[in-house]
Structure formats: structure tokens, C-alpha cells
Amino acid sequence: MPATVVVGTQWGDEGKGKLTDLLAAEMDMVVRYQGGHNAGHRIVVDGEAFALQLVPSGVLYPHLTPVIGNGVVVDPAVLLKEIDTLASKGVDTSRLVVSGNAHLIMPYHQELDRVIERFLGKNALGTTKRGIGPAYADKATRIGLRVQDLLDPAIFREKLDVVLREKNSVLSKVYNRLPLKMNDILDLYLGELAPRIAPMIGDTVTIVHDALSRGERILLEGAQATFLDLDHGTYPFVTSSNPVAGGACVGAGLGPRDLSRIVGIAKAYITRVGAGPFPTELDGELAELLVDRGHEYGTNTGRRRRVGWFDAVMLRQAARLNSLTDIAITKLDVLDTLPSIKVCVAYEANGVRYDYPPYHQSTLHEVTPVYEELPGWQTDISSCTSFDQLPKNAQDYIHFLATTTGVAISVVGVGPGREQFVTPS
Description:
The protein is globular. It has 12 helices and 20 strands. The protein is an alpha/beta fold. The two termini are 26 Å apart.
């Protein structure tokens, strides 16, 4: 049975964790296919919140196999801490499998991430400083250490010796930082972390394909979102991997014909963390209202998110970049108190109208949003259990989003809880 992909269509934080958790109820396996612990997925089950960073969201279901694919960069200390936290809440993580081909985040990656951001000053990219970018850079230059290297101490030591000499040279001579000690890293990674990680390491490509051949249902879960994609996002204010649906094939070891459904996630408004263009960004009292009602602070970092009106221009682009089959809209309830709501349906710049984002970054920084304004519903919708129970204006808003983006909307979130969603008729 072909696989389903869940992909963010905006700048992240759309609620991928909740949707993955929702869809996982009918799945046999959930595979995380890219990113690292720079993205957090928050899931609320029976009033208890779970903040996941590396472990796939489906871990909360006892019947399901959670897999960390080859496209992920893994900080083993963070992974083990997350596993211990889940265990303390009664969650069984014994089924977790980690790809041996996934790359390791090392202490020098984190140190470089911090000093490079400081060095960039006003041109800083707003990274989480957790070593994600430097780890992917080492992967691309073929000097990275992989999860499987933890199983071979001699290979691990040999690779580390080569790369650490280069990293320490950069840290000391360019950034005036103290060199990292090889023995400290060996003690941590081989002495403390490897014994616990080793039982989880596996050939995830074979595991995933064997599951497909048995007719099992597989869900592919990404981190970040389309407009943080390294190739298709608002470069350079992007992540260091490919969250788009095509990245799911690479990061999990699947072919395009293995995918059958690609669900895009979008908030009923839009948010962004860090620097970069944001055509529909709001400020003042309205922005603070959305931040407060939507609890718009990073799951991992606690950073305040920038907020703005829904951007249909972006979503049209996301639809064609990902071949979306349908869309899930989250956090509709955050708009409950507004008397009217705007939707950006196009951009204008220098007398030219754009129905899709302009390819040139200079133009994107100059665009003016073209808005359609719709009436609000000013009613609490958090207790609605069917689409028909939504106020007419809320239904009309959802129908308008589907029409202006050209993609069917299959799920609408009306609150943070696992069961707080409705299905449009």
C-alpha cells in the first residue's frame, strides 16, 4: 500500500505533529524523513502535552513502528533525553528504529552554529544554533559521521580525528574559540551514548520497503515546511534540508511511485520564526492578539513567532511544489474573536500582479499583498464536532480558502486537542 506524506505549506509551526498524530491512528509506521531537533511537534492527548523533537509523532500509538529515516540529522544525547521523557510519561519507545545512514550532530557543529550566527551580526539567519546546518554541510562535503559509525569505535575514532583537526583549526584561528578535546567527544559518544543507541539502529530502507510489500500503511513526517526548503524556500532564510514532499522520498529511501497521498498543513493564518520576508505580517494589537490566542511561541526555543494573514499566494506555490492532494487547516479557533478576516489572494509589485511568489528575492521583499476581506464569526468553535456545527461565516472562510488555493480541504482544526477537528462536507 503506497505511503502518505504530511508536509508543512508555510514557514513551519502549522501543526504537523497534531495531524501526524491524527493520521497515525490508521497507520502501521511513521517515518521522520528530514530535519533535526530544531523543530518541535506539540501534541495534546487527554489534556497532556507532548513536545516531540526527533521521535516521530506516531510513537504515542502502541501499535505503530516509529522510524527516524536516513535524511534526519541526529543529536544522540537529545534523542535519548526525549526517549527518557516519554518513558517517564508512560510512552513505550521500544519500537523506535533509527537509520544507520542518518548523520550525527557533533559538538563542533553546535559550536560552529553559535559562533557563525554571532559573526554574521545583523545578517544572522536566525538559526536555532543546534548544529543542524553545519551537520548537513558536513554531509554534503562527505566528512560527516553517521549513526552507524557508533557501532564501530575504530571507524568512529578515525573519522573524528580527521574532521576534528579541521574544525578545531577553524574554531581557534577564525573565531578565537578553544579547541574541542577528542577524548571528551569519544567518552560521550562511544562511552555514554553508543551503548544506548546501538539497539535502535537499523536498515530503515529495508524495513520501510518490507512494510510496503506487506501492504502496511506508512506515514512520512517532515519537519519545518515548504518555504523553509533549502531549494524552494525564502533563501537564505531557510533550513538546511528539503522538507517538500520530494524530500520524503530521499529522506526515507522511497521512490515517487510509493507515494499516494500528500497532505499539506496550513494554519488559518500564518506565522514565521526568525528573519526573512513576510508579505502579510501584522503588528500592533492584532498581532499580539493572535500570538496570545494561538500561543505562538516555539515548542523548542520559546521564541515569539511573527504572525500575519493567510497567504494564498504561498499556498498555491506549495500545492504545485508538493503535488498536494488535500490540505488540513489548523487553528481556525484562533480567529474566533475577529469581526473580519483578511486573505492575501495576490501580490503586487511595480505594477505587476503575482498569483505565485516572484522568483527573485528582491521583488519578493517589495511586494504589497492584495487582500480579500471576509466577515468573522465571533463565536467559540472549540466544541464543534462536525463541519455543519461551525458558524456559516467560518464555513464560508474554509470554502474560500479551498477555492482561492485550488486544493480541497480535508481537515479543519478547532482546538489543540487530538479530537478537536472537523471534516468539511
